[in-house]
């Protein structure tokens, strides 16, 4: 129960607050529905890209282990140390329904063996493994972007749902209870007032009959 | 803005991505080392993507989840299978779907 004074003024104020809370509730519900739709769209793409990316990664690992087996682990790891580095992401932030989500892209993807920078005497298996990892990396960046987007949307969805529930099950019922209480008190006060008037009228009439002189 | 990619996991994974041109790769030797490494990476402005093997992520468990919760869009954190293709049965994304939707969801293939 809220502390409210039973006056006509607070009755009006409460009515306005209830109307506002209902409107907010409806808007948040709409936002939630839109978020759910967006979330599932992103999720569908996550599963799509994930399969492709993980398949690619598996084949990259397979080629790498072949290379390590045939050429040697130490040599392969040495080549990896020598390989040209500097693959970077070009990143920015995008907003989906007010939720910040990452946007990222790898600048260079598949390089030629010359660009990779390791010794040219290395076996072609190493080139194939490197290329496969480069392709996998591009897909993984895309996947990371999608998964983070799904995560951010899910988080926002949860927050919105909490707010909707708070309005629906706590704030609005409380306001309505307060409104009922005030309406009841006001009615009661009106009845009391009416009764008082009747009593006064009866009193006055009685006085008129007995004495005549007294004027109110 | 330009940001780096970082790989955290086993030797093969780090070697593979080094061949693809990823400059920073770490092979933590203990749980504590992995946790403090990731805590540092997650707070680094210039890091755009952290690739973490599922096996290691699973080992870090709740502590990793707590670290990731509430972070901004960057750095992105992606769990990937290692050389053995290891992935947990129920991954974190499916858990999330169940929590947000309140029901099991099966995405049908088209």
Written account of the structure:
The complex is a heterodimer of chains A (216) and B (110). Chain A has helices at residues 8-71, 73-82, 113-116, 124-210; strands at residues 88-96, 99-106. With 216 residues, chain A is mostly helical. In chain A, strands 1-2 form a two-stranded antiparallel sheet. In chain A, α1 crosses α2 (73-82) and α1 runs antiparallel to α4. Chain B is of the alpha/beta class and 110 residues long. In chain B, α2 (31-42) crosses α3. At the A-B interface, α1, α2, β1, β2 and α4 of A face β1, α1, β3, β4 and α4 of B. β1 of chain A pairs antiparallel with β1 (2-8) of chain B, so a sheet runs across the interface.
Mean of pLDDT of chain A: 87
The poorly predicted ranges of chain B are none
**What do the pLDDT scores of chain B average to?**
85
* Number of contiguous helices of chain B: 4
Shape of chain B: globular
Give the strand tally of chain A: 2
Euclidean distance between termini CA atoms of chain A:
43 Å
Structural domain tally of chain B? 1
Radius of gyration of chain B: 15 Å
Identify the biggest protein-protein contact and residues per side: A-B, 60 and 42 residues
What gross morphology of chain A would you assign? rod-shaped
Strand order of the largest sheet of chain A: 1-2
């Amino acid at each position: 129960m809220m502390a409210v004074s039973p006056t006509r003024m607070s009755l009006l104020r409460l009515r306005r607050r209830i109307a506002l809370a209902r409107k907010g509730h409806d808007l948040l519900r709409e936002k939630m529905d839109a978020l759910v739709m967006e979330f599932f769209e992103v999720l569908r793409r996550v599963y799509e890209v994930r399969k492709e990316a993980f398949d690619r990664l598996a084949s990259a690992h397979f080629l790498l282990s072949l290379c390590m087996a045939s050429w040697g682990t130490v040599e392969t790891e040495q080549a990896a140390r020598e390989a040209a580095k500097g693959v970077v992401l070009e990143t920015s932030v995008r907003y989906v329904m007010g939720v910040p989500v990452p946007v990222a892209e790898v600048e260079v993807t598949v390089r030629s063996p010359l660009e990779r920078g390791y010794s040219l005497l290395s076996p072609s298996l190493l080139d194939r493994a490197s290329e496969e990892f480069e392709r996998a990396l591009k897909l993984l960046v895309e996947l990371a972007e999608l998964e983070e987007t799904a995560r951010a949307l899910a988080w926002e969805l949860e927050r919105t749902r909490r707010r909707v529930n708070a309005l629906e099950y706590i704030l609005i019922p409380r306001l309505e209870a307060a409104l009922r209480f005030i309406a009841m008190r006001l009615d009661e006060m009106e009845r009391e007032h009416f009764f008082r008037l009747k009593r006064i009228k009866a009193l006055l009439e009685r006085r008129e009959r007995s004495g005549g002189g007294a004027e109110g | 803005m330009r940001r780096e990619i970082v790989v955290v996991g086993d030797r093969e994974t780090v070697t593979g991505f080094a061949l693809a041109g990823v400059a920073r790769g770490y092979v933590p030797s203990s749980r504590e080392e992995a946790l403090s490494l990731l805590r540092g990476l997650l707070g680094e402005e210039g890091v755009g993507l952290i690739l973490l093997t599922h096996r290691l992520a699973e080992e870090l468990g709740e502590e990793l989840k707590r670290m990731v919760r509430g972070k901004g869009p960057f750095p992105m954190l992606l769990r990937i299978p290692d050389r053995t293709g290891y992935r947990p049965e129920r991954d974190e994304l499916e858990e999330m779907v169940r929590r947000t939707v309140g029901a099991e969801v099966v995405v049908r293939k088209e």
